[in-house]
Amino acid sequence: MFTKLRYFFLFIIFSGLITNHASARDQIRIVGSSTVFPFSTAVAEEFGNNTEFKTPVVESTGSGGGLKLFCNGVGLNHPDITNASRRIKLTEVNRCNENGVKEIIEVKIGFDGIVIANSRSSDRMDITLQQLFLALAKDIPGKDGTLTPNPYVTWNEIDASLPNKKITVLGPPPTSGTRDAFNELAIEGGCKTFSSFAALKKKDKNKYKAVCRSIREDGAYVEAGENDNLIVQKLQADPSAYGVFGYSFLDQNSDALQGSLVDGVAPEFEKIASGAYPVSRSLYFYVKKEHVSVVPGIKEFIEEFTNELAWGPEGYLMEKGLIPLTEGERNNTASASRALEVFSASELE
Fold first, then answer.
1. Structural domain ending residue among the three candidates 261, 281, 301
2. What is each CA distance from 339 to 107, 109, 302, in whole angstroms?
3. For the chain, how far is it from start to end, CA to CA, in angstroms?
4. Which residue in 102, 104, 208, 260 has a CA-CA distance of 20 to 30 Å to 346?
5. Do both 123 and 34 map to the same domain?
6. Is 131 found in the same domain as 248?
7. What is the Cα–Cα distance from 59 to 37, expressed in whole angstroms?
8. Which of 153, 322, 172, 183 has its CA nearest to residue 234?
9. What is the count of structural domains for the chain?
């Protein structure tokens, strides 16, 4: 009984703090993915210019970093929305729940491809998922089938068709959703092509993931931070290097950079939208429903983002490189998110 009363009074005190300090923040705070950042920023600016609400503050913290901040708790010291270039994980939902974030609204906004790009002053690379795994995985199968530390120094040591250049790939850190997706879609995608790993997956799923999603740490892969624009600049300065980032950044810099073909497919708008490009993913943002009635404009921001003039095939986000959902998905997502329907964690199990 004492414990129940204690939690009841804590709830009353907390509710009072939110009510009394509601005027302390009249501006939406958004954190999260660097890939979704340009889309979210464009919507925030449009929202601020054309409504009675202030322009939301948007920070690029990476998907993992954003979800950590988002799940830290409820209240004006915590962000209202987080962007993500991958879907939220069950462990993150559980952490949110533990910290009082019980009602999460999921908004899938479109598609993106992860590109392996380089300067147009160099040749364009045509690489398979298996070759990507052999180039960037921490451990690879040796001649006797056992795992061995990655020995490859140059691309053409893997296959004579690849460039005679030192393997140097600039990419995001572990806190990035792009890194998570790249590990899963590209590195694990190549790992799956080896029959020995298929057997390992059946025997020990945790070890399989540890091996098939681990990036080498000997300098061939360089963590370049959460700022994808910085990777773009470094590629322009170093024609021998390759970079890993979202399609929108390639699209915005197509005069200077080119995307490698992966399994013979170019990272192009239509190929990503159709799923033909093998390193494609969905993009999201997540809303803390507990904040909707406290911070002004959250519901209206959702409506702006899910407006056809924003995320539709002719919307202003397409100019930023967003690849739209199908019409049916857009209609369903807009309807659910505007009604503030809460995301069910059972979908992740």
1. 281
2. 12, 16, 10
3. 34
4. 208
5. no
6. yes
7. 7
8. 172
9. 2
Tell which residue, 326, 313, 278, has the closest CA to residue 114: 278
Q: Can you give the C-alpha Rg of the chain in angstroms?
A: 22
The pair of structure tokens assigned to 187 is 């590195």
Residues 26-52: tens digit of each pLDDT: 999 999 999 999 999 999 999 999 999
Burial class (CB in 10 A: 0-12, 13-18, 19+), 297: buried
CATH number of the domain enclosing 129 = 3.40.190.10
204 is a domain residue: yes
Summarize pLDDT for 278-294 with one digit per residue, the tens.
999 999 999 999 999 99
CA angle 80, 106, 291 (to 5 degrees): 25
Are residue 152 and residue 275 in the same domain, yes or no?
Answer: yes
Residues 145 and 56 in one domain: no
Are 105 and 122 within one domain?
Answer: no
213-262: per-residue pLDDT in tens?
Answer: 999 999 999 998 777 788 888 998 999 999 999 898 899 899 999 999 99
Strands 147-149 and 261-262: unpaired
The Cα-based distances of 229 to 150, 282, 301 in angstroms read 29, 21, 26
Side chain identity, residue 274: S
Burial of 43 per CB tally in 10 Å (0-12, 13-18, 19+): buried
31 beta partners: 82
SS3 68: helix
Structural domain boundaries enclosing 77: 22-111+282-348
